[in-house]
Amino acid sequence: xxxxTSRPVVLCLSGHDPSGxxxxxxxxEALLAQGCHAAPTVTxxxxxxxxxxxxxxxxxxxxxxxxxxxxxxxLPVAAVKLGMLGSVEMVDTVLDIMRKLPSVPLVCDxxxxxxxxxxxxxxxxxxxxRERLFPVATIATPNLPEAQxxxxxxxxxxxxxxxxxxxxxxxxxxxxxxxxxxxVHNRLYAxxxxxxxxxxxxxxxxxxxxxxxxASTLAGRLALGESLTxxxxxxxxxxxxxxxxxxxxxxxxxxxxxLPLEL
Length: 263
Description:
Order of helices and strands: EHEEHEHEHEHHEEEHH
Keywords: Kinase, Transferase
Structural class: alpha/beta
Oligomer: single chain
GO molecular function: kinase activity
Organism: Stutzerimonas nitrititolerans
Low-confidence stretches: none
Shape: globular
Protein name: hydroxymethylpyrimidine kinase
Enzyme class: transferase
């Protein structure tokens, strides 16, 4: 017998990764683990594996709008998660989509580089996200290298990047793990000046899809009604566990093991 779902719906606007480590598959798996329903809308197609990305193609604006409109007309969207956009035109497309969802929390993962270092859009895409999308987003989740690009501070610290970016967005989570420190420091900044620092043990190796996992999990926790700071902490804890239990199915980076919370 069919029954209405009680799982909150998260609209995911992200790229497709054929290796299954990042992109929409990461979103779907992480959201299922939170008890949410993922509504995946493809923004771009990539040629990549667990080593790096070699090519990508951004989808036509009309195709992306049609996908999103179909979801919005049919499903009660409780949160939106942004991943790879790949072009300035896609930034504008997302703005048009968000005008249809004015009160829905938006988690912006500014995907500018693949885990292996390959570019997933020109820096101008990042600047367009900063100028146009950040003001309508609830929170952005860049890692430190992405924050440095967005803030135009190539050697900036997390604090310096946050100072430059907070005029555009109310909350900013800058994730660590890109240095050689024994503990990873993830910093949640707010425009009101508050700061929460979450530390975790540094794990060996490098990981493919960790940022997607974190951002989609955070969107799921917000969709479930969790407060922002608590949702960030829950998302960081879950993501760390997926990295701790990560697998290496290919010749490159580890892929997070995104199992349901009870497993």
